Amino acid sequence: MKQVEDSEILEKFSNTKTRNEAFNLLLNKYQQKIYWHIRRLVIDHDDTDDLVQDVFIKVWKNLENFRNDSQLYTWIYRIATNESITFLNKQKQRNNTPLDEVSAELEQTLVASSYFDGDKAQMKLQKALLTLPEKQRLIFNMKYFDDLKYEEIAAITGTSVGALKASFHIAVKKIETFMLNEDITF
Amino acid sequence: MEENLEHSDWMKGIKETGFTVPSGYFDDLNTGIKARISAERLRNVVQETGYDVPDGYFEKLHTTILTKTTSQSVSDTKPKVVRLWRSNILKYASAACFLIVAGAGIYFNYNQPATINGIGYTDAAAEQMLFDIDEEVIIEHIEANYRDEQKPTATEEALENYILNNYSQNDLTGNL
Fold first, then answer.
1. Which residues of B fall within a CB distance of 8 Å from A36?
2. Which residue segments constitute the domains of chain A, with CATH numbers given?
3. What pLDDT is attached to residue B73?
4. Minimum CA–CA partner of B42 in chain A
5. How confident is the model at residue B78 (pLDDT cuts 50, 70, 90)?
6. Does the beta carbon of B42 lie under 8 angstroms from any beta carbon of chain A?
7. Which residues fall within 8 angstroms of residue A28, CB to CB, at 6 or more apart?
């Protein structure tokens, strides 16, 4: 299926007659990408479901004011990232969880999740990711699973490309060490 | 010709390209290449996250979001404004009614005897004061002040009726 261009979505959205059609196209294009982006951060499916809806409601409300000084998909990714990080911070505050126990809680969610059908290596990789600080985890996910360019990740996170590269390298080293300790060879 | 160009004098003086790299670049490049190799090797083992979603989830999600956005917007169109004052007659009639009610309220309030309110207040205060004083104190006070007086020959009930009929609560509290 031919992927619709962002410029076409924006053009249709600017016309009130084709606005709903434009949003439908936007949902088709980004719904799953945003779902997986959030899911990899918050782990739980139901939390992701709530967040992904919040994200697209925000997109719907603010797309009219979207300026073309950034790309549409980096703008949507940024909203999703902010919503996810805000959610995780609120969860920490609500449960009064010390920072070093956050990964343990997320790991419990991962292990107990009904919607995880990964093999041993996939589970290990997710566990390894949960040992990383939030920002490293975010950067690793976008680079490794979404295959985004550093420049695109920089636009989403507001971090310099140099800092992103350093974060990604550190993340990979940590994951490598974790996986080797867990007898996963690669 | 070619041979001449390679050995021309102006080329002999240019040994550098003029390009530069950021400081410490080659150290970082080393780390970067190693990390990329590790990531690629990892990718051979794990390509997917392993996360799953319920069957038909994304279709349902699509519908849910549209219900909360595009469908919602149809009912969110500008609310209909209903004029409160459809004609001038109704407007003036309402104003006149308001003035009549307000005027009557002010008139009756000013013509009420001022003493009523005052008495009402003092009676209530006196009653409250009597209520607050202990009965024993009242009895002791009466016995101390009226010990030498001749005891009335009337019955207590008749005396109580006489006091209630001829003295106000203010008179009684004034004497205590």
1. 49, 51
2. 1-97 (1.10.1740.10), 117-186 (1.10.10.10)
3. 60
4. A186
5. low
6. yes
7. A4, B62
Give the length of chain A: 186
Q: How far is B81 from chain A (nearest CA, A)?
A: 23
Give the separation between CA A124 and CA A136, rounded to whole angstroms. 17
- Quick one: tokens of A91? 């969860």
Full-model pTM: 0.63
- CA distance, residue A161 to nearest chain B CA (Å): 13
Q: Cβ atoms within 10 A of the Cβ of A110, count?
A: 20
A-to-B residue pairs, Cβ atoms closer than 8 angstroms: 100
Contact between residue A154 and residue A160 where contact means Cβ atoms under 8 Å apart = yes
- Report mean pLDDT in 10-residue bins for chain A, 186 residues: 86 92 95 94 93 96 86 94 94 74 78 80 89 93 93 94 92 90 69
What is the C-alpha to C-alpha distance for residues B47 and B52, in angstroms, rounded to an integer? 14
Q: Which two tokens stand for residue A49?
A: 């479901």
- Residues of chain B neighbouring A62 (CB-CB closer than 8 A): none
